[in-house]
Amino acid sequence: MFGLDGKTILLTGASKGIGAATARILGEAGANLVAHYGTDRDGAEAATAGIPADRKLLLQADLADPAALDRMWQSAVDWRGGVDVLVNNAAMMAWTGGIDDDDATWDEAWARTLQVNVMGPVRLMRNAVRHFRPRGGGILVTISSWAAQRGTTNPITMAYAASKAAVRAASQTIARGYARDGVLVYIVAPGVVRTRLSESFAATQGGEASVTAGLAMGEWVPPEDVGNLVAFLATGKSRHLTGATLDVNGATYVR
Questions:
Q1: CA–CA dist 236, 71 (Å, integer)
Q2: pLDDT, tens digit, for every residue of 97-138?
Q3: In total, how many domains does the chain have?
Q4: In-domain check, residue 2
Q5: Which of 68, 80, 213, 253 is found 20 to 30 A from 7 (Cα to Cα)?
Q6: Model pTM score
Q7: Nearest to 1 by CA among 35, 18, 24
Q8: 9 pairs with which residues across the strands?
Q9: Is 253 domain-assigned?
């Protein structure tokens, strides 16, 4: 277990999937956790149930609302006097926005996806960098996707792939631009993770068995694998890894 005692970490999307697993792991490692949720407070409460009350703060915000994100960031800073780590995990996947959709459907799906998956996380990163620089540094962890490198197998979800590539590029740019200020940035690119989102996607690809058959290890990535990696990155123990994209896909996609 990685020791995170004394570190204050803001994690977005803590209600389910990768976020819920990561919340539990960060709490077990001793972090002071600010757990963000969108609409599912019950999920966030369940994910953080094992964390002592004085080491957790649950905050709600719509990632598509810049003002709400600014308020959440400030609340996180005020809680313990600062934030040491930002983990941008929350994201959405629209099941519309494909080539054959009508213009209105296309426009809505792309606008919402880019707002939630790119503009929201980047706004939080902007706040974080402004906060980190006078403090001598801090850590950003971006949960991207292997779709950012290879696209998705269902073209109707191309907005998701594009958004994950965009947030990765923004993270890499921050890594290069602010390394001398002590800002460390890591990008995690999971493959097929055991989440409801992946299960829904698999249903569009012939079902779970069909997807599993194409995986090198013959199994989906447990969310805890991603959570454990995030916990390690949050320690800052590997400073010169900053800017790297870390693949978590069981050797299915090797580059």
A1: 26
A2: 999 999 999 999 999 999 999 999 999 999 999 999 999 999
A3: 1
A4: no
A5: 68
A6: 0.95
A7: 24
A8: 33, 85
A9: no
